[in-house]
Amino acid sequence: MDPTKNKAALGFTLLGFLLVASGHAAGLFWAPREAMMGDVGRILYCHVPTAWVALVTYLIAFIAACGALVTTKDKWDATTHAAVEVGLVLNTLLVFQGSVWAKPTWGTFWTFDPRLTTTAIMAISFAGILVLRHLVHDHDRRRVVTSVAAILAFVNVPIVYMSVKWWKSLHQTQSSPDTVSDPMVWVLRTAAFGMLFLSIGFILYRRDIALRQMKADHGETELPPEQDRIELGLKQKETS
Q: What is the largest CA-CA distance in the chain?
């Protein structure tokens, strides 16, 4: 499929942009100040949705990797590639946003807190998958290596999520609609759904691009419509 003609990807992307812009604007200008952190706490509306959706995106990569191993189909391999790339972008944003938030609240941009450390390991692990894809040129082997690596890297995802409960941590426990006041809930949900839809749109676009690249690597070309093939065959016979 031509990525520029993927209506589902376009729909998710546009809706995601709209919701993200609305949620962030409401978080910046409308939502009440956080009781302890004041205006610094407004980063919650971009940091927390980024964290949630990064983990969801890696879950998509895990599911796609399992599908690629079981079915050996290119669409699953392309989905794994796309989800890993989008997840890594979110993961990088997550680390950056967390550092920006940490400085005024903890007094430092970085500390080897369990949540921060496991999140950094998560980013490095999934970045390694993209490196492996670049190094392995055989199509079938690349699919297997990518899938196995994505499954192994995903082991760290639930560890990241549970780290604040399993170990003593500076980081607060997981944020959810139950942990924030009612006026903040709809703002947080708007931003979160926006980030989710935006990421889905990007995954769909990147999957289509990956599929086209795979076809190009295989040397496959799209056949003309049946009628065109018949006419082409007749012309070849007439000239012979």
A: 85
Contact 45/175 with Cβ under 8 angstroms? no
Nearest to 137 by CA among 76, 209, 82, 217: 217
pTM of this prediction exceeds 0.85: no
Distance CA 75, CA 6 (A): 15
Q: Of 50, 57, 51, 59, which is closest to residue 20 (Cα–Cα)?
A: 50
Give the mean pLDDT per block of 10 residues along the chain (240 residues).
75 95 89 76 88 96 96 94 97 92 85 89 96 92 95 95 80 65 82 96 95 78 50 54
Q: What are the structural domains of the chain?
A: 3-239 (1.20.120)
Query: In whole angstroms, how far apart are CA 87 and each of 166, 175, 204, 210?
Result: 24, 20, 13, 16
